[in-house]
Amino acid sequence: MKTDLSRREFLWQTGAATLASTMLSGGLATGADAVAAAKPAGRKAIMWDTVGVKGSILERFQAVKDAGFDGVEMSSHLPQVEVLKARDATGMPIPSVCNSRHWAKPMSDPDPAVRAEGVEALKQTLRDAKAYGATSILVVPGLVNAEVTYAECWDRSIAEIRKALPLAEELGVKIAIENVWNNFLLSPLEAARYVDEFKSPFVGWHFDAGNIILYGWPEQWIRILGPRILKVHLKEFSRKKCDNEGRWKGFGVGFFEGDNNWPEIMKALRDVKYDGWHITEQGGGATPEGLQEMVSRVEKILALGVS
After folding, report:
1. pLDDT tens column, 264-305
2. Which residue positions in the chain have pLDDT lower than 70?
3. How far apart are CA 233 and CA 230, in angstroms?
4. How far is Cα 106 from Cα 117, in angstroms, rounded to an integer?
5. Nearest Cα to Cα of residue 255 among 226, 231, 233, 286
6. Alpha carbon distance 64, 53 (integer Å)
């Protein structure tokens, strides 16, 4: 249920509305120009796979726009022409593209042929991002399991990702590593070291505030990763539901109903001077009303980051 806005939230949203009005009165650019001109600081996007409303790519883009989001994080390997038409028709920027093949073709796999397919998927994600005007892509670097040791995952994934760096540099699109439940990069110090191993400004971090809760505190990770953070996923997680109902049930809560300390998270992002996109990867976007409720809650989170 929606709650009344605080004075601070009201001022923040009023300011955003004024900015939007000013842009419109001055003539808002369309298509690729709109993407290039979009200012990312404090803007809210949604991950494509969490948009559950039915319809074509264009219809789903329109539903996201109507709900109040500012952009969409796309999945890779979708029909580029359709995505571009939807982007241009709605004026919705695409700040990031998620590699849709990194689980099926992990770059840590024991089979060199699978790793090669993983690199090709990574390269296609970079090409999609360039086409859409995105500045970074989300990548799960590999996974540790009974067949792949921690050290093997580290060495293999770094070696394979390096093969895509020349293309990333050529296209001007950065590779952002995400923290997920892949039994790998389980501490912020280790995550920072992993990024630094590449010695490249084209490798950074895609920070997920929900995935961390199972084994850490987001605000601590943020302060250690600092300028390595290229994009942020907003996601809630409940330790209680995880403990009582099963691991994945921890994600079955809305914003402000779990264990994310959003004031501290936003303070940490402000302290490290993060001014990029905030992308929600949260359940509840299956209906227009669900998307609108999500926007309302995300705006309350973003209001906490206003100094």
Report:
1. 999 999 999 999 999 999 988 899 999 999 999 999 999 997
2. 1-41, 307
3. 10
4. 8
5. 233
6. 9
Q: Give yes or no for a contact between 158 and 196, defined as CB atoms under 8 angstroms apart.
A: no
The answer to whether 268 touches 227, Cβ cutoff 8 Å, is no
Spatial neighbors of 19 by CB under 8 A, at least 6 apart, are none
DSSP 96-156: EEE-TTTTTS-TT-SSHHHHHHHHHHHHHHHHHHHHHT-SEEEE------SSS-HHHHHHH
Neighbouring C-alpha atoms within 13 Å toward the C-beta of 279:
32
Query: Helices then strands (H, E): number in the chain?
Result: 12, 8
Report the amino acid identity of residue 259.
D
3-state secondary structure 77-89: CCCHHHHHHHHHH
Residues facing residue 231 across a β-bridge:
206
Q: How far is CA 230 from CA 5, 28, 241, in A?
A: 30, 26, 30
Residue-level length of the chain: 307
Q: How far is CA 109 from the centre of its chain?
A: 24
**Helix (H) or strand (E) segment spanning residue 20:** helix 7-25
Coil, helix or strand at residue 192: helix
In tens, the pLDDT along 101-135 reads 999 999 999 999 999 999 999 999 999 999 999 99
